[in-house]
Amino acid sequence: MNKRSVFLSIGKIAVTIAVVCGVVSIIGIWRSSALQNDKRAQARQETIASLRKGIDEIQFASVDSSHAEVSVSVESFARFVDARAGVTLSERLRTRLAAMERSTLKGHTERIPAEDLSDILTSWLFGQIGSLSDQEVDRAIETLRGFDAPDLPDSFKRGRRFIQPRASQIGPEVTPALVAEIKSLRDQAAAGDQSFKALLGSFVSREVEHIGRLLPDALPDRFTKRTTASEKESLQLTPLQAALIAYAVVSDDPLTGSLAGQRKHMRAVQEWQIKKRGHYPDPEMYKPYGVNGYTYSSPVDLFLDEASVDRLLTLLEQRRRA
Fold it and tell me: 3-class SS at 303?
């Protein structure tokens, strides 16, 4: 499935992959449920601990935070997405986001339920996909072929024949037919095709639900839940927290590990690849995520540029006033 940048445009392909993976997973659990449950519980705790290390680098403000502290919080978020994926938030966007964050923390505007965020992100991404030019689609596909560098081993380059719609998925080979199919999906979005939007919405909802289950356990004092009238617990998000989840959905950055930890991991990848292939590019000049990310490459430049983030913030404001 996919968006995070036209990889969302290949949603139909990614959905098929996800369904197959899900069936295989179910079979594995059925065969050894007790062991699998223990492993999953342990893996979840490890993920939460690693997530805490990652988002601890963002200084989330609280209801008691001063005007200046909220600005510091937004600045820390801007540094976070820049360091991890090369996403740049202009001073104008940071100022706008800080104002929205203050208004929410002070109770002047409502927090954003995670369910509403899924709808917002779906509408936003649907519009973004439909607005892509042919050149931008081509650029997104090239980015999703994975990390590239002049000194990339030939054996690794051969793997770039395939698109990687998500960090954990290897998709089909890039062919003229695939490119045409992706551009056709872009055209469907531009025409307002509701079936494609529904498919995209299913993907976004699962992504938001996944990260939404982990964040309150990682930082329970910042990510709060509220019991709704239907007695269902709902994660209530500030604009900054919503922006963080939007970034995670687009970049497929799991938000885990400190920046130092990410750098250590990249260096370990290089060392392993050198042993296997003889040489591999130095990670020093690369980001873990984003365009040509060393860990995972995603076209964040097409979805988290100035105009795109501005549109997202507008949608967040409109929903909170609704």
Answer: coil
